[in-house]
Amino acid sequence: MLKQQWRPASTMLVLGFSAGLPILLIFSTLSLWLAQAGVEKSAVTYFSWAALGYSFKFVWAPLVDQLEVPYLSRWLGRRRAWLLLSQFMVMASIVGMALTDPARDAGLTSMALAAVALGFSSATQDVVIDAFRIEVADKEVQALLASTYIAGYRLGMLVAGALALYLAAWFGASADHYLYDAWRSSYFCMAAFMLVGVATTLIVREPKFSIPLTHRPVQEQLRFVLLFAIMVSALVVCFWLSGTTVAELKTAWKPGNRGGDAVVSTFVESMRLFLAFAAAAASAWCLVRFNAVPMQLVQQGYISPVMEFMGRYGRSAWIILLLVGFYKISDIVMGAVANIFYQDMGFDLTTIANVTKVFGLWCTLIGGFAGGLLCMRYGVMRMMFVGAILTAATNVLFMLLASGEPSTAWLALVISADNLSAGMAGAAFIAYLSSLTNVSFTAVQYALFSSLMTLFPKLMSGYSGSIVESMGYANFFLGTALLGVPVLLLVYLAGRVLAVGRS
Q: How far apart are CA 3 and CA 133, in angstroms?
């Protein structure tokens, strides 16, 4: 039995590494690169929107579930074919970023395009890995797999965070000396590390609980791709054309301070996204109405996974979705400015890498494994409640750090508390999300949950730089801590839903 658990756990450790590597390359590590290149702080945090691909992955998750990858699917199987394709896409996107200097004219635009491509390809990889994890073992083992996945994920983040900074510094970059060649070489090395995931994909077997892929006629597959392409085009066009109106609304409703402006902007942008998704849904309806796409494809790809979940939980499904959407808001909003905060406090790149990445990694690993064990002992919902409390509390510690003089020892204390709590809360939350899925719709349902998990927090984090410039770091961290308070009520209510379902 132990051997049977060890195999999927070790696989998830390595695949977690492959999933964790790209995220910091479009998040905090990229923030430091852009800051050294002389990009304004508010523009730097806007780049966190490049990771919105993680929040929209449910849109193309049905393609991963329903379509074959030419040649690869018959050779490797349903999950591994998509996994290999997405990993090569990740490598190509990282290389594209490495070949772009953001300090040059038009370089920022090229970097943004490459970052968006990395967000899309990495999110696609996540869709497959999440489905692989849920299908590779029984539900009783999911807490263990969540812990090893988090461990691997954090190892990937360590490489993309600490090692990327070490390499950039070793190649010649420093806090007071920007050198594009140093960052380019560092990102080339990050692309090479993705070969670890590629090798694992070629070695492991298909998940035992995966439903075999239905071999559809080529014409039907092309019509499904057409459905996806037109839906995305409608979403992008609606989002693009609404830009002028959104800018006018932001100006008309401007409170007069940057903190209030950020709140208004977040609300307006949320409505903009809602309308864009409505346009995508309307385009799908038109395709079905005029027989361009069979209703069966839309039903299987988009409607059935949602209706199955809603039918399983009834009205309580809305409580669960609210919890999923806001559980990590404190952590994500704060994380958008974390590395910039460390640099503004006066810590050099080596100290940031040593304390926040290397030391922080071990704290996260300990917290993750502890969270997995405690979930098995006390239950997932109890550990989610404890994790939510600890996450909010550690943001208060960041407020205290911002209010004092820079101290490496105090930074290590804050990082240890933050990463221990993040590891515990993350293990519990991943196990909870896994328990919500139906094996018939694994990829789509989990993609929906994990997309919702990051959508609003990442949208809000794009304005975090403006909020910091308005109210300072101390007040900003206090505000992110208060954002976690309503989460406690949602965890309590969702726990009652789970208890009623078991009775």
A: 17
Q: What is d(CA 315, CA 126) in angstroms, rounded to the nearest whole number?
A: 29
Work out the average pLDDT over 371-386.
Answer: 86
* Nearest to 349, CA basis, from 183, 462, 184, 494: 183
Tokens of 266: 């977040």
Q: Do residue 268 and residue 328 come from a single domain? A: no
Range of the domain at 246: 216-293
- Render pLDDT for 464-476 as a digit per residue (tens, 0 to 9): 777 777 778 888 8
Q: What's the pTM value of the predicted model, to 2 decimals?
A: 0.75
Residue ranges of the alpha helices (H) in 204-313? 218-241, 243-252, 258-289, 295-298, 304-313
| pLDDT greater than 50 at residue 420 | yes
Query: Quick one: tokens of 414?
Result: 């804050």
pLDDT at residue 503 greater than cutoff 60: no
Q: What is the distance between the alpha carbons of residues 159 and 165, in angstroms, rounded to a whole number?
A: 9
Are 7 and 117 part of one and the same domain? yes
User: Residue 448 and residue 58: Cα distance in Å, rounded?
Assistant: 5
The count of domains in the chain is 2
Tokens of 262: 């950020």
**Inter-CA distances, 461 with 95, 204, 338, 428, Å:** 26, 37, 11, 23
Boundary of a domain, candidates 233, 261, 293: 293
Do 449 and 350 reside in the same domain of the chain? yes
What is the spatial distance between Cα 27 and Cα 31, in angstroms, rounded to a whole number?
6
Do residues 388 and 270 both lie within one domain?
A: no
CA distance 437 to 470: 41
Contact 147, 427 (CB under 8 A): yes
What letter does residue 177 receive in the DSSP assignment? B
Give the whole-angstrom CA distance, residue 293 versus residue 147: 41
Final residue before a domain boundary, out of 293, 327, 354: 293
Mean pLDDT of 255-276: 69
Q: Are residues 418 and 279 in the same domain?
A: no
pLDDT grade for 182, boundaries at 50, 70 and 90: very high
CATH of the domain at 163: 1.20.1250.20
**pLDDT tens, position by position, 318-356:** 999 999 989 988 888 887 777 778 888 888 777 887 888
Interval 253-270 mean pLDDT: 64
Q: Do 303 and 419 sit in the same domain of this protein?
A: yes
246 & 346 share domain: no
Q: What is the pLDDT of residue 254?
A: 64
What pLDDT score was predicted for residue 1?
Answer: 45
